[in-house]
């Protein structure tokens, strides 16, 4: 009889914690725990949200009658550790250290490996993993050069979902991911737009670092001179300016909310100012897709729009109208991250692949 492995998947995003339980490939439970701007407000640092998110996960499992002791492994979305190749990594002490001290900055996904390790530690024999963290780096060399010698461009994006969606699209058209040129726009709490050339993300707008389009809670690119003046105005601390770029930028700053579903409804019900801001976010995504089309020299098989915001037909139609001259636009709303994480853990549990060692 086939051995059943039970896998808990934990995916902390900036505005949600998604959890799911899989018995081998089959999802037996899933829940999206959404966190409003107000709920997250009391936590100074992302790491401070650990206890809050852990309690929500444990309560949700309890409510669904899922015994933590029945778990074979726990896999979390990986965070802002050192740039590493795509793969599955066991959560060891070095990885935990980097998830806590975050050499590349703060993001909710830093909690993924930590929550996975904490919950796996409750179960004798269970191990914790991360896979395709947000720091997966496949940039072509020319894309790393920024306009001053003290700066360099860095790859931080929705690697797990961008790749899962790109592979799923390739399968759906009977092709290999490695044979296609795709532009993937992931629209979530953060937004990243990537140029996938034959299975490698050779350029991508960094979702965290003040690049590309603004998003529900990120500023995206800001006018540099204005930013410098603001930094030296004496009116804001370093931490406050950091939060303007990530956490309290984008729609949170412009509208007070990170909830695109509500904002679109508000806009379509006559709030012109909100509508204009939502359109501006979509406009910037369209513009970034155009940049990635140039990166791929116009050889683009398809443009994929994904992430929670892709559920909004209004936003997708706006982007489509701007970019469908480049290539067919395919909307794949939500994300395939949970299944992708579970599949990665299952391959390790079945001994079909060896986890990488994070050093
Ligand atoms: N039906 C919908 N229409 C528009 N926006 C939506 C819809 N469903 C979810 N969203 C928005 O998607 C965003 C969250 O996307 P998601 O990919 O789940 O984010 P993350 O994982 O980064 O927290 C939120 O702003 C949410 O309001
Ligand atoms: C840090 C890059 C990935 C990202 O922005 O994720 P969220 O959209 O979940 O915040």
UniProtKB/TrEMBL annotation:
Its EC number is 2.7.2.7. It catalyses: butanoate + ATP = butanoyl phosphate + ADP. Keywords: ATP-binding, Cytoplasm, Kinase, Nucleotide-binding, Transferase. It holds the Pfam family Acetate_kinase. One of its GO terms (cellular component) is cytoplasm. The keyword Metal-binding does not apply. This is Probable butyrate kinase. It comes from Alistipes indistinctus YIT 12060.
């Amino acid at each position: 009889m086939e051995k059943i492995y039970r896998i808990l998947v934990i995916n902390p995003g900036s505005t949600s914690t998604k959890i799911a339980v899989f018995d081998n490939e089959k999802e037996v439970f899933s829940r999206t725990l959404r966190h409003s701007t107000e709920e997250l407000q009391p936590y100074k640092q992302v790491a401070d949200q650990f206890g809050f998110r852990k309690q929500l996960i444990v309560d949700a499992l309890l409510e669904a009658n899922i015994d933590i002791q029945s778990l074979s492994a726990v896999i979390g979305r990986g965070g802002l550790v050192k740039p590493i190749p795509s793969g599955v990594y066991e959560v060891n002490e070095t990885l935990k250290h980097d998830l806590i001290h975050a050499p590349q900055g703060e993001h909710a996904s830093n909690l993924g490996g930590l929550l996975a390790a904490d919950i796996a530690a409750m179960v004798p024999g269970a191990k914790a993993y991360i896979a395709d963290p947000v720091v997966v780096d496949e940039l072509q060399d020319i894309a790393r050069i920024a306009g001053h010698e003290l700066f360099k461009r860095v790859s931080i994006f929705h690697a797990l979902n961008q790749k899962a969606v790109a592979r799923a699209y390739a399968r759906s058209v009977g092709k290999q991911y490695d044979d296609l040129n795709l532009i993937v726009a992931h629209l979530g709490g953060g937004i990243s737009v990537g140029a996938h050339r034959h299975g490698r993300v050779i350029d991508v707008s960094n979702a965290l670092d003040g690049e590309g389009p603004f998003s529900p809670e990120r500023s995206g690119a800001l006018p540099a001179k204005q930013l410098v003046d603001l930094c030296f105005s004496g009116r804001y601390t370093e931490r406050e300016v950091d939060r303007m770029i990530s956490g309290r930028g984008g729609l949170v700053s412009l509208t007070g909310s990170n909830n695109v579903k509500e904002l679109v409804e508000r806009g379509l019900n006559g709030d012109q100012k909100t509508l204009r801001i939502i359109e501006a976010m979509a406009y910037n995504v369209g513009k970034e897709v155009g940049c990635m089309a140039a990166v791929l020299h116009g050889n683009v098989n398809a443009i994929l729009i994904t992430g929670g915001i892709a559920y909004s037909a209004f936003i997708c139609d706006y982007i489509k109208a701007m970019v469908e001259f480049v290539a067919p636009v395919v909307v794949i709303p939500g994300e395939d991250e949970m299944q992708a994480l579970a599949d990665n853990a299952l391959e390790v549990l079945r001994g079909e692949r060896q986890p990488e060692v994070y050093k």
